[in-house]
Design a protein that fits this description.
Elements (H helix, E strand, L loop, with lengths): L17 H18 L9 H19 L7
Length: 70
């Protein structure tokens, strides 16, 4: 079990990309941990696109609205 706590000082919905950056970082770290992937291998284009899609899908489910790109 992994627990992650975060705190942001920026206002919700400000469009600064903080939640997107955090989500991508957590998804990349989780993928690396779960699949024993070297972090530098996650920078490949296919891995980036996969991470972006996964995070967009999760965000859309959580907020019950379509998610866009920053």
């Amino acid at each position: 079990c992994i627990t992650v706590e975060t705190k942001a000082m920026s206002p919700s919905g400000a469009g600064l990309g903080g939640s997107s950056s955090l989500a991508i970082s957590l998804a990349a770290a989780t993928a690396a941990w779960a699949h024993n992937i070297e972090p530098e291998k996650l920078s490949k284009s296919s891995k980036r696109e996969w991470l972006i899609q996964v995070v967009k899908d999760i965000e859309s489910q959580v907020i019950q609205k379509p998610a866009g790109l920053q």
